Amino acid sequence: MSEIIEEIRNYLESRTGRQDLRTMELNESLLETGIIDSMVMVGLTAFIEEKYGFRVDEDDMVPENFETLEAIANYIARNTAGKTS
């Protein structure tokens, strides 16, 4: 799980230039802090699909899955359980 979190942090940091991602709590809101907006979300879903090999369904694009680093990592883990990368 920590590897997924680190990969998501790296992606978001490179996409947004936000250095504060390094010190954010895993349950701190990426939406409320403005780190994830609609444009970043499009890129993030494409990154997840390419990196982890599953399609992010439009119905899955809800705060429960993308609000925090922890939520994103859990979402990815649920969708890749039993798969090898």
Topology order in helix (H) and strand (E) letters: HHHH
Number of domains: 1
Shape: globular
Radius of gyration: 12 Å
Distance between the termini: 14 Å
**Average pLDDT over all residues:** 94
Named CATH architecture: Orthogonal Bundle
Description of the molecule:
The protein is mainly alpha-helical and 85 residues long. The protein has one domain: ACP-like (Non-ribosomal Peptide Synthetase Peptidyl Carrier Protein, Chain A, Orthogonal Bundle). The chain contains 4 helices and no strands. α1 (2-16) packs across α4 (69-80). The longest helix is centred in the N-terminal third of the chain and has 15 residues, at 2-16. The chain starts with a helix and ends in a 5-residue tail after the last helix.
Key features?
85 residues, mainly alpha, 4 helices, 54% helix, 0% strand
Question: Summarize this, please?
Answer:
By secondary structure, the protein is an all-alpha fold.
Task: Please describe the topology of this protein.
Layout: H1 2-16, H2 38-52, H3 63-66, H4 69-80
Helix pairs in contact: 1-2, 1-4
